[in-house]
């Protein structure tokens, strides 16, 4: 019956396996069924020629550009061009791998096929080889085009740097002179003509959008955009606030989430309103190149102004002081509240007019007038803001309230902004208008970057504190999933928060130096990736795609090592016949080797080639030869201790006057616990190179309890000898073999010295045994009226 049941089960499994194989064969596509009619992704020669023409056009524009804003646009064009090439390469690489796999299945040409005139497999191999040759050629061409385009980015950066140096060092008329203000009161005829041309194009665009049949739709779009711009922000703000209050936990995380929600609501509604306005204006006819250029720059300016108002509203939070992230008092926050809106309005109007002068090609004097007015008004506005803030703080202090807690970073920012404003005003007075405009733009950009990254850092910190808090549901789930304690969970929170804040600070520094007013997030991201993924990392073959693999390899490897070590310590090693010291040594050795392998696996996951680490190995060899030789010596000594085991955990040793039990053998040093429970840390090299007494190495070491007592000359030696001998023999810890022994040690004018010796089972109980014996001996001597010798008084 049992054999029949086994046969039925075996037959059923085989039948199921055969049926699934048939289904897979029926549903799966044939791997080698590529023929002339097969459709596949391909890049034609016309596409490659179009890419080459596009690249040549960008190079020509770069060589002719003489404006910083134009260079920024060209940099965006180069980055878009590189992204398009990456898309084409990503589409061709799978096809290349598929063709290579199909050729590998077919294998090389056999002698039988070579002798045959024509065969189906030979035709198929020839077709696949031709297809792969074309794909390889296309990929090679795309790689060359991408390399050529990537080389334009540092060249554009150099040209931008040169143009900026020329602008900031250009000296013109002072703002106190009539020459500076002449384009405003006595404009040039050419400037009037160019401005009139710009206005005419705007009127034409509006007229096209206001044609009969389109008015109703465009009016509705404009009204909808204005409604979203004005009332939509408050509606979105209330909606996101409701979500944060009801979905986010109460505490710091909810507060930072509310601030971020306020910024998101402001930016999203403004972006939607702008897109509707732009669609209403260009729905019938696209804009002219001049208006399109102005629209692109003005869109960036609007985003900048919206971010200023959104961040200031979120950080000041005058309507809800309990939601305020920075430590700013209410009077100071109310004093600062109108200035961000004033700054946004001033920038929107003045910088917009300056952009009109730039795109319409007005004279340099008109452009310098716009720059000077922007620098002057923005600098004065910042001076008023600082003065109002200082006045509000003094009022708070005089009112008896606690002053705001100031930080070193805030003080440095305040000093740097004050120095920048003084330099800007001085530059305007002596005629360096472009330098003053550059400084004021950097002030605005610095405010935006510091405010934005401050919000992100607070959000990251609060998120880590909540997610890894042992009292919250997420922390409890992580503790149960990973099997870790509260302390380790708090350490993970601190490490992740610290690493995240370091990354955000690095991005903030990069944004401060590579960005500026009008720079988009895409430009910042591309520039940051260009800096972080520079030649140094590229030589090490580290790419962002490998970072996730490296992090996963590190985390999984550490988790596996810790799990296996717990299994060894708690389950496997206790069931062996090895002593505890040997078990501890094996566990430590396993962990050290495992962590070394995890580090190697992490570096391999990063894509680092060991040939590129030759300079690191050279530097380490020099460091090992000088400063690291002691560390390496102790490390090697630790490995010798763990393998040869001259000492092990639990041994009682004595070295250099230190006697105690070995508590732990680490990679660099060994911990020795003394009799008073204190710990002495001894480098491993000393345990190898110096004379060491291991009391318990043999496993059967005995302790010696020896006492030396001096008696007066008039005693009965036999009586005292028998008393001492009986005391030792009657003590429970004194061994019978070897038997206790009493010796006549010395005879002197001070008295008779007797030495009594007994053996105990372990050296660890010698001290306690000697103490018990002394108490008992003194008791018996007192009962027998025998006194110890009195030391002679010193002269």
TrEMBL record:
Subcellular location: Cell membrane
Keywords linked to the UniProt accession: Cell membrane, Membrane, Transmembrane, Transmembrane helix
Coiled-coil boundaries: none
Signal peptide (UniProt feature, chain positions): none
Residue ranges occupied by any Mechanosensitive ion channel MscS C-terminal domain in the UniProt entry: 710-787
InterPro entries per UniProt: DUF3772 (IPR022249), LSM_dom_sf (IPR010920), MS_channel_1st (IPR049142), MS_channel_C (IPR049278), MscS-like_channel (IPR052702), MscS_beta-dom_sf (IPR023408), MscS_channel_2nd (IPR006685), MscS_channel_C_sf (IPR011066)
Domain (DUF3772) ranges: 143-201
Record domain Mechanosensitive ion channel transmembrane helices 2/3: where: 588-629
Topology in membrane: Multi-pass membrane protein
Pfam families: DUF3772, MS_channel_1st, MS_channel_2nd, MS_channel_3rd
Transmembrane regions: 257-281, 301-319, 339-360, 366-386, 407-432, 438-457, 502-522, 542-561, 582-601, 613-632
Domain Mechanosensitive ion channel MscS: 631-696
Family: Belongs to the MscS (TC 1.A.23) family.
Name of the protein this chain belongs to: DUF3772 domain-containing protein
Organism: Pseudomonas violetae
């Amino acid at each position: 019956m049992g054999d029949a049941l086994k046969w039925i089960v075996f037959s059923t499994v085989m039948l199921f396996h055969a049926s699934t194989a048939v289904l897979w064969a029926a549903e799966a596509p044939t791997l080698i069924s590529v023929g002339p009619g097969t459709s596949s992704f391909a890049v034609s020669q016309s596409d490659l020629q179009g890419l080459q023409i596009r690249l040549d056009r960008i190079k020509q524009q770069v060589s002719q550009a003489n404006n910083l804003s134009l260079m920024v646009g060209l940099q965006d064009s180069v980055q878009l061009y590189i992204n398009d090439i990456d898309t084409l390469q990503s589409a061709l690489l799978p096809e290349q791998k598929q063709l290579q796999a199909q050729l590998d299945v077919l294998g090389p040409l056999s002698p039988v096929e070579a002798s045959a005139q024509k065969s189906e497999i030979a035709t198929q191999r020839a077709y696949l080889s031709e297809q792969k040759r074309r794909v390889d050629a296309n990929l090679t061409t795309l790689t060359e085009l991408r390399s050529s385009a990537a080389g334009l980015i540092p060249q554009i950066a150099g040209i931008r740097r040169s143009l900026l140096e020329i602008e900031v060092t250009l000296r013109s008329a002072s703002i106190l002179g009539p020459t500076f203000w002449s384009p405003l009161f006595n404009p040039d005829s050419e400037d009037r003509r160019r401005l009139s041309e710009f206005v005419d194009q705007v009127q034409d665009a509006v007229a096209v959008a206001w044609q009969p049949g389109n008015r109703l739709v465009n009016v509705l779009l404009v009204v909808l955009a204005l409604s979203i711009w004005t009332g939509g922000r408050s509606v979105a703000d209330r909606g996101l606030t409701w979500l944060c209050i009801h979905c986010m936990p109460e505490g710091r995380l909810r507060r930072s989430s509310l601030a971020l929600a306020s910024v998101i609501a402001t930016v999203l509604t403004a972006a939607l309103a702008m897109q509707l306005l732009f669609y209403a204006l260009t729905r019938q006819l696209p804009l002219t190149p001049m208006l399109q250029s102005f629209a692109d720059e003005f869109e960036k300016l609007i985003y900048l102004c919206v971010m200023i108002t959104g961040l200031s509203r979120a950080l000041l939070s005058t309507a809800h002081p309990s939601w305020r992230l920075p430590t700013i008092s209410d009077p100071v926050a109310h004093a600062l509240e109108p200035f961000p809106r004033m700054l946004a309005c001033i920038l929107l109007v003045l910088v917009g007019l300056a952009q009109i002068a730039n795109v319409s090609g007005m004279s340099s004097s008109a452009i310098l007038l716009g720059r000077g007015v922007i620098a002057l008004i923005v600098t004065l506005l910042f001076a008023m803001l600082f003065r109002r803030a200082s006045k509000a703080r003094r009022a708070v202090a005089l009112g008896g309230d606690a002053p705001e807690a100031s930080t070193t970073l805030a003080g440095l920012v305040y000093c740097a902004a004050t120095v920048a404003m003084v330099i800007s005003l001085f530059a305007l007075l002596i005629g360096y208008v472009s330098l003053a405009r550059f400084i004021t733009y950097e002030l605005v950009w610095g405010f935006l970057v510091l405010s934005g990254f401050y919000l992100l850092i607070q959000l990251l910190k609060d998120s880590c504190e909540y997610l890894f808090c042992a009292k919250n549901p997420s922390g409890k789930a992580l503790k149960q999933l990973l099997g870790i304690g509260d302390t380790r969970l708090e350490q993970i929170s601190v490490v992740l928060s610290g690493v995240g804040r370091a990354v955000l600070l690095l991005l903030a520094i990069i944004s401060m130096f590579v960005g500026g007013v009008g720079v988009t997030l895409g430009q910042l991201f591309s520039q940051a990736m260009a800096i972080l993924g520079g030649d140094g990392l590229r030589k090490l073959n580290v790419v962002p795609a490998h970072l996730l693999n490296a992090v996963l390899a590190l985390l999984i490897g550490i988790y596996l090592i810790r799990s296996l070590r717990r299994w060894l310590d708690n389950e496997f090693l206790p069931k062996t016949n090895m002593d505890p010291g040997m078990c501890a040594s094996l566990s430590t050795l396993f962990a050290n080797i495992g962590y070394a392998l995890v580090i190697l696996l992490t570096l391999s996951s990063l894509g680092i080639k060991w040939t590129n680490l030759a300079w690191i190995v050279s530097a380490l060899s020099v460091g090992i030869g000088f400063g690291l030789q002691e560390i390496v010596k102790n490390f090697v000594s630790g490995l010798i201790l763990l393998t040869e085991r001259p000492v092990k955990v639990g041994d009682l040793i004595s070295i250099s006057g230190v006697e105690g039990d070995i508590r732990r053998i680490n990679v660099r040093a060994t911990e020795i616990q003394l009799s008073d429970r204190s710990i002495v840390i001894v480098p491993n090299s000393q345990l190898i190179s110096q004379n060491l007494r291991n009391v318990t190495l043999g496993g059967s070491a005995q302790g010696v309890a020896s006492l030396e007592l001096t008696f007066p000359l008039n005693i009965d030696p036999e009586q005292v000898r028998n008393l001492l001998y009986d005391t030792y023999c009657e003590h429970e810890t004194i061994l019978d073999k070897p038997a206790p022994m009493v010796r006549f040690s010395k005879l002197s004018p001070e008295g008779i010295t007797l030495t009594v010796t007994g053996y105990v089972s372990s050296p660890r109980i010698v001290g306690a045994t000697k103490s018990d014996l002394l108490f008992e001996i003194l008791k018996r001597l007192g009962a027998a009226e025998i006194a110890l010798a009195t030391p002679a008084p010193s002269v």
